[in-house]
Amino acid sequence: MMSDNKVTxxxxxxxxxxxxxxxxxxxxxxxxxxxxxxxxLRLVHVAPMSKAQVSTYFGLSRRETEEAISDLVQRGExxxxxxxxxxxTEKSQGYFTExxxxxxxxxxxxxxxxxxxxxxxxxxxxxxxxxxxxKAGIPLKIDANNASQSERLVEKxxxxxxxxxxxxxxxxxxxxxxxxxxxxxxTVNSVNKLRQLPLRLTTEFQMDIDGKPVERExxxxxxxxxxxxxxxxxxxxxxxTPNNFMSIFKSMVSLSDEETLNLFDSRxxxxxxxxxxxxxxxxxxxxxGRETFLGPIYSKVNWQKLQKALAPMLAKRIESxxxxxxxxxxxxAPSDPFWAKSERFISSLSDFxxxxxxxxxxxxxxxxxxxxxxxxxxxxxxxxxxELGQFHKDAKGLAEGFLDGNVEILHLEDEVAVxxxxxxxxxxxxxxxxxxxxxxxxxxxxxxxxxxxxxxxGSSAFDKPNDCGALDAIAKRR
Length: 478
Hints:
- By secondary structure, the protein is of the alpha+beta class.
- It has three domains: about 5-25 and about 105-240, no CATH class; about 35-105, Arc Repressor Mutant, subunit A (Orthogonal Bundle), CATH 1.10.10.10; about 245-475, Endonuclease, Chain A.
- The protein is about 35% helix and about 25% strand.
- The protein has 15 helices and 17 strands.
- The strands form four sheets. The chain has an eight-stranded mixed β-sheet, sandwiched between helices.
- Strand 15 and strand 16 form a beta hairpin.
- The longest helix is centred in the middle third of the chain and has 20 residues, at about 300-320.
- The radius of gyration is 34 Å and the shape is elongated.
């Protein structure tokens, strides 16, 4: 749905190199004074006065007054003027900023903390909810000197950002003793690097009502986002692919899909977000068995659309007394550099696999096909194993070329199918634009199933089957 005349067409995670440090430092804090000492100083701060006046004001005996004043003189906080009046010294005057204020004594204390900083802007960010996984995202390249000199640079940035870090609650063990003066860093004693980790920056790519890209928003985790946006632009330019509109148009013809083409403005060849909204409204009111969506299928809202379509079928299979093992649920990945570059993909893949069975029966047989050049492509297979983590056991390699690698398909035999076109328009949009639909029309699902199965069972040559087998097996070949 559009909001503020903007619509999100893709969501990508970027992995910004960061490091965690153990920082030992000393800081200055303000401490209150004992009762009698405080109030004598406050009284003399208002105006110089004699010992007798102090004694009368506090109701102290002469001996008690002498002991209290003698202690303050020895501490260098009171002095006796020629006229016999007591006055504050330069040291004790520093305890006050205005008349009547509670005096505060500055003290230096030692402390330490474990803090994380990114290596581009050196912003300090929370240690909570940070995973050390360099996958399901696009890694950004930072200046090599930032990594090699990180301890020295973090020392400087820690001192500059001390108040900000305090405000964020990252130094919650440092208390302000109810004084007006904030704690301040006195000196940094040591900075030791502990580990390397990524700062995951989830980024929404949006377009306006004319289908043109909208400037990316800044990141609340960073003090300044400008530098990181530049790193992203460089990386996006490096991995972008050529315009594939004509290839996808041919795929639409082979899929007998006229509806999706109607979502583009004939003058600009750009998608019109308003057309998408109109199409969705029409589908909802006509019970067409088709639901159009923009963005990756694994985005939160789109994955919910798929689960809604699957729910009746899954409920029926759970309730059924028969256990036929369920149909095959095939997920064919596209050859798209921006596909699966999100934690949302991993959670959706987990959902795809977990819901395939209950404690008692198999509801469907999940298999994810990811693109490889052939059954000997062990380097790419290893990369996919890393990206998929524990879920790689449910994945197989598929020879590149299915609908030119621009179309992603999910197909559950006889039940539900999803088609997602991945449009590359680098001259207009910085990342590919996934645009697709969920279908429950049995005839269309069957037709799509034949296309999928024909390719999987086919081959590019006599000894080159398209189904290259389990990722594990491909990764072990040399």
